[in-house]
């Protein structure tokens, strides 16, 4: 098994060497002219992704169709191989999301979201609209370290919509508060895979995250709630 720092001697066709180096995760040391990976179509993925984002931004295609089509085009143009595509899939996250979809649907169909929303609305009677948005966003930030950002949206989304309905507000700003809160976990190294990836190389400890993450989370709440209320008004 390869370890960091191992030196490997490769012998073969130079035209196939860059792709082999990329698949093995090796860096060329002997010949600096040897590139890493296949650079022949390096600009194609960027262009295809830019076109997909523009189609979604201007409303020509739904986001699911646009980005699925992007993945298919990259495979057809051989910008990425099937092996690389399967290796890039985060299977544990997909399994977690798939397992929590029925949980979210069960909470909605059995009235569990209504119960949770009723408990929140009892406190929400004493809160203004922006304060209720703050409560939902903070709740999403608190749940994310124990689940996952996508899983948190599945669980918190129906609750936030029911909460908004009981308070007499539109659900859109509360759903956006859940989305932003679930995507902004800076307090722990386990809330998002990016936090976990930098823990080892950066030499961080568990307690280092909240020192910088707490002010950043407060900044997200302070900036995010007014912007949500501005773009998605809290009209009753």
Written overview of the protein:
Helices cover 67% and strands 0% of the residues. It has eleven helices and no strands. The chain has helices spanning 17-24, 43-57, 63-76, 82-88, 91-109, 112-124, 129-143, 149-167, 171-183, 193-202, 206-231. It is elongated, with a radius of gyration of 23 Å.
Category from helices, strands and their pairing: mainly alpha
Number of helices: 11
Helix content: 55-70%
The percent range for strand residues is: under 5%
SSE order in H/E notation? HHHHHHHHHHH
**Overall radius of gyration:** 23 Å
Low-pLDDT runs: none
Q: Shape from CA axes? A: elongated
CA(first)-CA(last) distance: 62 Å
Average per-residue pLDDT, rounded, comes to: 80
List how many beta strands DSSP finds: 0
Largest sheet: none
List keywords for this structure.
mainly alpha; 236 residues; 67% helix; elongated
Please describe the topology of this protein.
Layout: H1 17-24, H2 43-57, H3 63-76, H4 82-88, H5 91-109, H6 112-124, H7 129-143, H8 149-167, H9 171-183, H10 193-202, H11 206-231
Summarize it.
Helices cover 67% and strands 0% of the residues. The chain contains eleven helices and no strands.
């Amino acid at each position: 098994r390869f370890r960091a720092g191992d030196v490997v001697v490769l012998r073969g066709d130079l035209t196939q060497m860059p792709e082999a180096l990329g698949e093995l995760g090796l860096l060329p040391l002997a010949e600096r002219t040897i590139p890493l990976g296949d650079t022949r179509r390096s600009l194609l993925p960027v262009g295809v992704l830019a076109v997909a984002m523009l189609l979604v931004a201007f409303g020509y295609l739904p986001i699911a169709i646009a980005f699925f089509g992007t993945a298919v085009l990259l495979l057809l143009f051989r910008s990425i191989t099937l092996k690389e595509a399967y290796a890039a899939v985060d299977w544990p996250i997909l399994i977690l999301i798939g397992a929590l979809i029925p949980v979210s649907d069960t909470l909605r169909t059995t009235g569990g979201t209504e119960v949770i929303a009723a408990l929140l609305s009892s406190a929400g009677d004493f809160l203004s609209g922006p304060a209720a948005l703050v409560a939902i966003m903070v709740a999403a930030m608190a749940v994310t370290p124990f689940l996952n950002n996508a899983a948190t949206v599945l669980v918190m989304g129906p609750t936030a919509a029911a909460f908004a309905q009981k308070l007499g507000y539109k659900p859109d700003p509360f759903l956006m508060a859940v989305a932003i809160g679930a995507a902004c976990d800076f307090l722990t190294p386990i809330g998002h895979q990016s936090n976990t990836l930098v823990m080892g190389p950066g030499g961080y400890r568990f307690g280092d995250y909240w020192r910088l993450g707490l002010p950043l989370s407060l900044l997200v709440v302070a900036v995010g709630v007014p912007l949500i209320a501005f773009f998605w008004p809290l009209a009753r």
